[in-house]
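Technical note accompanying the year-one report. For the benefit of new consortium partners, we illustrate the data format agreed upon in the data management plan: each record pairs a sequence with a structure-token string. No post-processing was applied to the example shown here.
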Amino acid sequence: MAFREYRIGCWMFGIALSISMFITIVLPGIDISGMSATKIALEKQLTYGWETGFNYYDPFLQGKDKPVKVELSKDPKTGAAMDKTTAYVFPAGTHFPNGLTHNINGAEVQETSVSLGKVDQASEEAGGVFVVMTSAQDVPYIEYATATRGWTVDATLAAAESKSLAGSGKTIFVREGCWWCHTLLPEQTQDWQTFGRPPLVGDFNGESPTTFGSDRKAPDLLHVGSRTASREWMTMHFFNPRLVQPHSIMPRYDYLWGEGVDLAGWDKEFMEYAEGTRIYPPEVPEPAADSEARMLIDFVLNLK
């Protein structure tokens, strides 16, 4: 009798868990797959590139195999001045996001990306440059600027006013467990007033993973780049959060600054300043251009 009761209980638990997972995973997936991608979704796809997480292209989550987001004010091909434009550079061999390789952006967005954007001519082997545009019918689409405008990878990187490694930074964000404390999902409550508007379903087409987070021990970061756009403040915050928020429980990420930074020496000088034996505090060192700290800061500032 006892064994029979356990067996019935196991069946009931299994059925309840299956129903729960169906409601939690399958039903939202159906909603997302039926939605057309928004302009935000297309921009995120091109910023973050292919899947972020444990994969054989970047097994140690070092931010490899990611595009570079650049700002342009002159045409990379002709050198002529133009309105400021954001472009996404995929060096040869960099994996494309799923939105470029699978039809997950919605029929209208996909058709416009092919007819106007010529994305069907792009290949991962050759790489290329992409921009996000909006058609006369107000449909967002991806344009393969290498085919439509003649923008090459090297010329675009050379003409860039600024470069963002936000795609690599998202990998560091995942690896360092930032989403254990921070969410990227404001709720439809008073969050609107504090953290900005909640995202739409179509904002996530092609993004993997979404890094929603599971608990909010720290502020939501979805629009933090609009609230705190100072790179200097972010640099100080990641180097030692107590420099800008004395009661912060966030850990230091100074070890992401890489080689060439004397962390022990900086701590010694700071303690001398705190004890009053030094007049000025030590300067927070700038992270190297290719450091993981720079990648992480670029990612956070990109969240707008």
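Partners are asked to follow this layout when depositing records. The chain has three domains: 1-33, 39-164, 172-302.
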